[in-house]
Amino acid sequence: MNIVRTGFYTGIATASRLLAGLVVIKLVAWFAGPAGVGKLGQFMSLMSLLAVLAGGGISAGIVKYVAEYRNDARRLSRLLAAALWYALCASCVMGCAALIFSRQLAVWLLDDPRYENLIRILAVAQLGIALINYILSVINGFMDVRRLALIQVVGSLLSVAMVIGLSRWLHLYGALLALVIGQVLTLAVGLPAWWRSPYFQRNMLHMRFDPEMTTRLAAFSLMTLTSALLPPLVNIVVRNHLAAQYGWEQVGYWQAVSKVSDAYLLFLTTAINIYYLPKLASTHERQSLVIELRNAYRHLIPVVIVLAALVYLLRDMVTQLLFNANFSSANPLYGPQLVGDVLKVASFVLSYLMLAKAMTRLFVVSECVFAVSYLALVYVFTAYFGLVGAMYAFAVNYLLYLLFNIGVARRYLGAI
């Protein structure tokens, strides 16, 4: 299956997830205004953190090694038994931690202790979230894109129904609660779909501690955890900084533009993740890697440029459609954000080479360095340019990250 066909199936799945996300944003904007959208971003950052930590951050590792071992039954069985053990142990630890600190998290993130019970529900849900992440990763490793898309589409439809029902009853609280329940509901779709796959075997649900495989997963998960944990943490710090400087209403404008970017880029980043991670992991010849990377740029960069240009030209309509008239002040923020989006996709393609080839130390150091540089740029640029400075910081940081990844790719390919 090539990137075009993969993009078609992932596009359908992404559209369903995008619809679910836009319904949530629209309802929150309606019920709670810009300040509510800002708090929605905070809660979604927490969900992203816990979702990754729930499975020990090994989803990408499972994809990589399933792609490598799928023709080696013995090693595949060892890998999956170790992965399931790892994921469920990590979910129990993180769930307990979230339960213990639920009140502190509610006050820190949402500035309201009344959301403590919501954090507790999210903590209990970690076990189910870890299991569905494991199932989706195995399916992705086998490059069964159609089955993966089916699970995500049906799961998104269930989530939309949950959001509409709970938000009408509980408003902002209900919308946030629906986000949690929607993730767990995906398990009811994913598990039967996986059972019916031609590659499913009962021993894939066995758990066992395997020192060798656990060490491999732990090293790989360090990269995944770094890339998955730093952005939500950094965004929390950025929101708190912007809120202190300009108020939560201004944070809502920044969050709105960021969410629009996340929405349309989801089509591309999902295709990159589902296709290129297992593909690059299972490809070892220099010329084959070069061809895959060239094809990525030939297909993806023109698409992201066109999409970014359309969003910019239609920014007034997009803002009105997705939010409401109160968000018109967000329109001047689109320009630098969309430039940064193009640079982001260009850098992501190359960064997956580090992930697929397990360049652990280099990947972790680079993620930390560029997270710190983004924060520094936000503080400097907002001091000079105001709220739009956060968007300038986003674009400049991804330009630097792209240049770094070009250097890494050239060095790796030259050494093969």
TrEMBL record:
Bilayer-crossing regions: 7-31, 43-67, 79-106, 118-136, 148-166, 172-195, 216-236, 256-276, 296-314, 334-355, 362-385, 391-413
Family matches, as Pfam families: Polysacc_synt
Listed name of the protein: O-antigen translocase
InterPro entries: Poly_Biosynth_Transport, Polysacc_synth, WzxE
Record's keyword terms, sorted: Cell membrane, Membrane, Transmembrane, Transmembrane helix
Subcellular location: Cell membrane
One annotated Gene Ontology cellular component of this protein: plasma membrane
Membrane topology of this protein: Multi-pass membrane protein
GO biological process annotation, one example: enterobacterial common antigen biosynthetic process
Domain of life: Bacteria
Primary site of residence: membrane
